[in-house]
């Protein structure tokens, strides 16, 4: 009997402890609960005045003694206040809790309690304003991890791609290449498990469709419907339930050009991102044509209002630098009050960064946009796994520490060791940010 009582009280205590999480600071819930309680109090006061008037002025009938009994007049007034007040508060809380569960159940992830979902949403809604510049797989992998920490993400994406599905649409229809933007939208989607398969689906056959991504065609169709590429990207974000935003670095039709030094020492002028990737030789310099390409104004605004700016990971010459070569964008990064991180690639990339170490990556950026751009360089120091042919680990050397502040850690994806692990990288970046700033609002 004693054990049964203890078991009952322990279950009650556990239930009370679990529900007490609703009163945790920062959920933005208690203010509305207080308003409901105040409204209920006024409603109860009005009903009490009506009942009191009926009780005092009605002729003597059989139900008046019953009403007096139900109002517990045989008890002292403070005791009655506690009893009726406690019952009222309990019923209000149970009603609010039950209605919230019924209304929000269709929108909750399976197996995730309502309080956890609300706490997670509020925490990310108050997260730091992070701007990430880049393109390709590296950018989408970082976004996939960062969205677990904040909803205030802006991805600024290069638009110099001229290969594959994006290149075909750019050449035949004349829109900006949507490929990298599509990948970022899918990465930031609130329902990525489904949409990453649908939105990123690539047709394997079909006249006119072969090689095209469904997401690219979707953005292209929205561009014609809305009349502008930037509106199409914004509407795609709404359709995919994206938290944050994805912005092109420029709305101009730009082409990437480069000087490559061949094996014979001759300098070759190469035009087009695809040709730069596929031409043998060491890249000496890259630039955009036209060179005075203006930046997309919302991208400038996002950079200037950011708490943290992250450049990389991604292809150094064909994803990262094309963003920084856009007029005014590099200068906006430089003058922004945000903390600035550069995330160095895990492995070299054939045709772009052969035999590069971390310092070589930093110096290549400084060669094109000037020194003093970064507050911290984030490098990988875990070198386990098999890389592809002619691909090497990007290692941090001692000279880099004399050049800029450096953080090293295990950042690789165990399945694909030549890539960053999105969760590890995002956790590292947010931890490093909060080490420097403390919790926002302090």
Concise summary:
The chain is 50% helix and 12% strand. It has 18 helices and ten strands. Strand 1, helix 6 (136-146) and strand 2 (153-157) form a beta-alpha-beta unit.
Number of beta strands: 10
Q: What's the average pLDDT?
A: 82
Kindly report the CATH topology of the largest domain. Answer: Rossmann fold
Number of helices: 18
Estimate nothing, just give the exact number of structural domains: 2
Q: Give Rg in angstroms.
A: 30 Å
- Which geometry do the CA atoms define? elongated
For the biggest β-sheet, the strand order reads 3-2-1-7-8-9-10
Class by SSE composition: alpha/beta
Report the CATH superfamily of the largest domain. CofD-like domains
CATH class placement of the largest domain? Alpha Beta
Tell me the series of helices and strands, N- to C-terminal: HHHHHEHEHHHHHEEEHEHEHHEHEHEH
Low-confidence stretches: none
Helical fraction equals 40-55%
Head-to-tail CA distance between termini: 52 Å
CATH A-level architecture of the largest domain: 3-Layer(aba) Sandwich
Defining traits:
442 residues, alpha/beta, Rossmann fold, seven-stranded parallel sheet, three-stranded antiparallel sheet, 10 strands
What does this structure look like?
- With 442 residues, this protein is α/β, with parallel strands linked by helices.
- It has two domains: 2-115, no CATH class; 124-437, CofD-like domains (Rossmann fold, 3-Layer(aba) Sandwich).
- It contains 18 helices and ten strands.
- It has a seven-stranded parallel β-sheet with strand order 3-2-1-7-8-9-10, sandwiched between helices.
- A hairpin with a 5-residue loop joins strand 4 (255-261) and strand 5 (267-271).
- Helix 6 (136-146) packs parallel to helix 8 (179-188), helix 6 (136-146) packs across helix 18 (422-437) and helix 10 (214-226) crosses helix 11.
- The protein is elongated and about 115 Å long.
- The relative contact order is 0.09.
- The mean pLDDT is 82.
């Amino acid at each position: 009997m004693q054990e049964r009582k203890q078991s009952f009280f322990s279950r009650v205590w556990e239930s009370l402890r679990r529900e007490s999480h609703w009163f945790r600071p920062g959920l933005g819930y208690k203010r509305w609960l207080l308003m409901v309680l105040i409204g209920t109090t006024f409603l109860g006061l009005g009903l009490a005045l009506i009942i009191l008037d009926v009780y005092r002025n009605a002729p003597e009938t059989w139900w008046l003694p019953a009403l007096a009994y139900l109002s517990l007049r045989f008890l002292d007034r403070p005791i009655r206040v506690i009893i009726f007040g406690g019952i009222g508060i309990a019923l209000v809380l149970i009603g609010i809790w039950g209605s919230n569960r019924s209304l929000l159940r269709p929108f909750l992830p399976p197996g995730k309690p309502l309080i956890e979902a609300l706490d997670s949403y509020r925490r990310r809604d108050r997260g730091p304003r992070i701007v990430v510049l880049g393109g390709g797989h590296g950018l989408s992998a970082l976004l996939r991890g960062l969205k677990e920490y904040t909803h205030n993400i802006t991805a600024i994406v290069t638009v110099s791609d001229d290969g594959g599905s994006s290149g075909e649409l750019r050449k035949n229809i004349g829109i900006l290449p949507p490929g990298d933007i599509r990948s970022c939208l899918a990465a930031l989607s609130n329902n990525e498990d489904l949409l990453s398969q649908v939105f990123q689906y690539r047709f394997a056959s079909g006249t006119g469709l072969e090689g095209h991504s469904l997401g690219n065609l979707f953005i292209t169709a929205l561009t014609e419907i809305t009349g502008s590429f930037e509106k199409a990207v914004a509407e795609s974000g709404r359709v995919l339930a994206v938290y944050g935003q994805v912005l092109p670095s420029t709305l101009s039709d730009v082409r990437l050009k480069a000087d490559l030094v061949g094996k014979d020492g001759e300098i070759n002028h190469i035009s087009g991102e695809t040709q730069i990737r596929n031409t043998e030789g060491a890249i000496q310099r890259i630039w955009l044509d036209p060179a005075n390409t203006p930046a997309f104004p919302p991208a400038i605004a996002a950079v200037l209002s950011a708490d943290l700016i992250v450049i990389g990971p991604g292809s150094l010459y064909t994803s990262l630098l094309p963003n920084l070569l856009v007029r005014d964008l590099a200068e906006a990064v430089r003058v922004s009050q945000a903390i600035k991180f550069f995330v160095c690639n895990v492995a070299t990339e054939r045709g772009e960064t052969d035999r590069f170490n971390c310092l070589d990556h930093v110096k290549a950026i400084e060669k094109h946009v000037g020194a003093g751009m970064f507050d911290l360089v984030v490098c990988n120091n875990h070198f386990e796994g098999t890389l592809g042919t002619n691909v090497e680990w990007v290692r941090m050397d001692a000279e880099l520490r004399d050049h800029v502040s450096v953080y090293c850690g295990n950042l690789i994806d165990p399945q694909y060791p030549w890539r960053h692990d999105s969760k590890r990288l995002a956790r590292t970046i947010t931890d490093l940010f909060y080490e420097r700033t403390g919790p926002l609002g302090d």
